[in-house]
Design goal:
mainly alpha, 8 helices
């Protein structure tokens, strides 16, 4: 009886140390879009800023960003496209081509706080300001968008069907 208790306690401690045992990570790891399309099965490093620093995000944070995207952005940006302006999607090449570039966490959060036109010349009202979300939430949302632009097939393109089809296959 005492041995069983000790083994159970050790299991709980190991699960807590790995972070995978956390309810949020468990939910994130059950989400096929996060695990298959985004290839997130553990912590991922994403570009934090324009000078090349990296920021690590847990599966739970990416999943939280996905949920924010689904409830606030998806109407205009389904699958990473931009319905009000189809020429400016959330594809990685488009994020990199913006002025200033929007291919890192800091620049995406800055854009969310003050949306500017693609050439950076003026404030745009096509995308609403996200000053209503906390900084950590904005970073999670940016992490989801950035990871999707890097890994999800068809993200930001007209090939959304390819993105949906890949739900059952591992990403390249």
């Amino acid at each position: 009886m005492r041995g069983t208790f000790v083994l159970g306690l050790c299991g709980l401690l190991l699960a807590g140390c790995s972070g995978v045992g956390d309810d949020g990570d468990a939910a994130a790891l059950k989400d096929k879009y996060v695990t298959v399309n985004l290839g997130v099965r553990g912590p991922v490093d994403l570009p934090a800023d324009a000078v090349g620093n990296l920021q690590t995000f847990s599966p739970q944070q990416i999943y939280a960003g996905k949920k924010l995207f689904e409830s606030n952005c998806q109407n205009c940006h389904v699958g990473g496209t931009t319905t009000p302006n189809p020429k400016v999607s959330l594809a990685l090449a488009k994020l990199q081509g913006a002025t200033p570039s929007r291919d890192n966490i800091q620049s995406l959060v800055q854009y969310m706080r003050l949306p500017m036109s693609y050439d950076g010349s003026e404030e745009t009202f096509n995308c609403r300001k996200s000053d209503w979300i906390k900084d950590d939430e904005a970073q999670n949302l940016a992490a989801f968008i950035l990871r999707a632009s890097q890994k999800a097939r068809g993200w930001g393109t007209a090939r959304l069907e390819a993105n949906q089809d890949s739900m059952t296959t591992a990403p390249p």
